[in-house]
Write a structure and sequence with these properties.
- The complex is a heterodimer.
- By secondary structure, chain A is of the alpha/beta class.
- Chain A has helices spanning 43-50, 72-76, 94-101, 110-119, 133-145, 163-176, 191-195, 215-221, 261-268, 281-297; strands at residues 4-14, 19-28, 32-37, 58-63, 66-68, 79-83, 151-155, 183-188, 200-205, 208-214, 223-228, 241-246, 251-255, 272-278.
- Chain A is 32% helix and 30% strand.
- In chain A, the strands form three sheets. In chain A, strands 6-7-8-3-9-10 form a six-stranded mixed sheet, with helices on both faces. In chain A, strands 2-1-4-5 form a four-stranded antiparallel sheet.
- In chain A, strand 12 (241-246) and strand 13 (251-255) form a beta hairpin.
- In chain A, 38% of the residues are buried.
- By secondary structure, chain B is mostly helical.
- Chain B is built from five helices and three strands.
- A three-stranded antiparallel sheet of chain B has the order 1-3-2, with helices on one face.
- In chain B, a hairpin with a 3-residue loop joins strand 2 and strand 3 (75-78).
- Chain B is elongated, with a radius of gyration of 18 Å.
- Classes of the chains: A alpha/beta, B mainly alpha.
- Chain A binds chain B through residues 30-32, 167, 170-171, 174-175, 177-178, 180, 196-200, 214-216, 219, 272, 274-275, 278, and chain B through 7, 12-16, 42, 45-46, 49-54, 57, 99, 102.
């Protein structure tokens, strides 16, 4: 069995005003990937290619071992997909939707569906058109989870959810991963939404993947160093520095290759390291995007 | 076994360090005894709603420090003689000391004055907490 649930290799898709260029993406089975990008960065295009809804111009895509889009019918039986613009039938009830999906998906789990309805505080007899935005998202998620899919693909699922609903949703996503065989890809423009539960983090900007790594590695290698330079001493050349801010005597360096040894290197040069700050994933994302955009315009 | 570990979003330290610290405290106060089975990585991840990789990291560091033993395919237990020597605190402590020294200098304090103030701070802490439960 392939231990990658999703594999993109050199995938490109060109539109008149936007192009996705040379995307490589690997999502190991049993893990959660947070797919982070600003609005219009290419998250949804990537996800549509993954689902076989849009066909790539170049490159290969394998999802759960199936080549896409060629084998999309077989792949889709095992993928649960929830997107923000998901349409459910407004005039029908949640129970009607459950009964509709039940015979289509062999692994449909009715007791689990009912348990989820309770946890999400949804009434199966209520019509979809009477639901709030948050309730609709939870209903769509319920319908996807109860199919017990091997891969769950969620396009901005937490957008517009209140804090209580968001915690419920993230909790159920974690619970769905209990047996190590299931995999989740969750896109968001908000790092805070996905930071806590993600194992892998991928940043996308302007149609290109700009960084992809496991979350602990991200948090380990990014640091901000606040230095104090004596007069006439230049900023030391340190590895991985992508941004130098602050003033000339009090520079602030952002590095993505932090090693504790950097501090002694600075001290040897007569430079005082005032502080070594850890960075949140949001700060890392923003610094990453800025440095990439600056290099492109330079 | 319920874990009772609490992750604080406003704690600036990485989540894996918070988890390590709380596991050690549980061992120190006897909630978790040597030989006790502790929650599996996946179980704890679900309980805390924290990614598997973060729990993995915490368990790996705890094993390196000799607090737990992970048996492949069998889960993890508290080590027979758990080593609770707080290596990480030692590092953090020296960092803070350096900050104290630098700020003291900035305020024009003599090193005697800095030492006196440090001593005062620690006696204040002892007064506020007469019974020292946690090592």
């Amino acid at each position: 069995m392939n231990d990658l649930s999703v594999q993109f290799d050199g995938v490109s898709k060109r539109y008149t005003h936007f192009s996705l260029e040379n995307v490589h993406l690997e999502l190991p089975t049993g893990s959660i990937m947070g797919f982070i990008g600003a609005n219009g960065a290419g998250k949804s295009t990537t996800i549509r290619i993954l689902m076989g809804l849009v066909h790539q111009d170049e490159g290969s895509v394998r999802v759960l071992g199936h080549p896409m889009p060629a084998d999309q019918a077989a792949a889709k039986l095992d993928i649960g997909f929830v997107s923000e613009d998901m349409r459910l039938y407004g005039a029908a009830t949640l129970a009607w939707h459950m009964n509709f999906l039940r015979p289509i998906y062999p692994r449909w789990d009715q007791p689990y569906a009912e348990k989820l309805a309770q946890r999400f505080d949804l009434k199966p007899q209520q019509k979809i058109k009477g639901l709030s935005h948050g309730q609709r998202v939870k209903a769509a998620l319920l319908l996807a989870l109860a199919r017990r899919p091997r891969l769950l693909v969620l396009d901005e699922p937490t957008t517009g959810l209140d804090p209580v609903a968001r915690v419920e949703v993230l909790g159920e996503l974690m619970a769905a991963l209990a047996d190590e065989e299931r995999t989740i890809l969750i896109s968001s423009h908000n790092t805070l939404d996905v930071e806590q539960i993600s194992d892998q983090i991928t940043f996308i900007d302007r149609g290109r993947i700009i960084d992809s790594d496991n979350k602990e590695a991200f948090l380990d290698r990014w640091r901000r160093l606040r230095l104090v330079l004596p007069p006439d001493v230049v900023v030391p050349r340190l590895p991985g520095v992508i941004e130098v801010g602050g003033s000339s005597r009090l520079p602030v360096l952002t590095t993505n290759q932090f090693e504790p040894a950097m501090v002694s290197v600075c001290n040897d040069l007569g430079v005082t390291v005032q502080a070594v700050d850890t960075m949140t994933l949001e700060e890392i994302f923003v610094a990453n995007v800025h440095s990439r955009r600056e290099r492109l315009t330079a | 076994m319920h874990s009772d570990i609490v992750i604080s979003q406003s704690d600036h330290r990485p989540m894996y360090l918070q988890i390590m610290e709380q596991v050690k405290q549980k061992v120190a106060v006897g909630d978790w005894a040597p030989g006790d089975e502790i929650p599996s990585i996946r179980q704890l991840a679900m309980d805390l709603r924290v990614s598997v990789i973060t729990i993995k990291r915490a368990y790996l560091e705890l094993e390196r420090e000799g607090v737990i033993i992970t048996q492949h395919g069998k889960g993890s237990i508290i080590a027979p003689n758990p080593d609770l020597s707080p290596r990480l605190y030692v590092e953090e402590f020296s960092e803070h000391l350096e900050k104290v020294a630098r700020l003291g200098e900035l305020l024009g304090l003599s090193s005697e004055e800095i030492a006196r103030r440090t001593k005062e701070a620690s006696s204040r802490l002892n007064e506020a907490r007469p019974t020292k439960e946690i090592v």
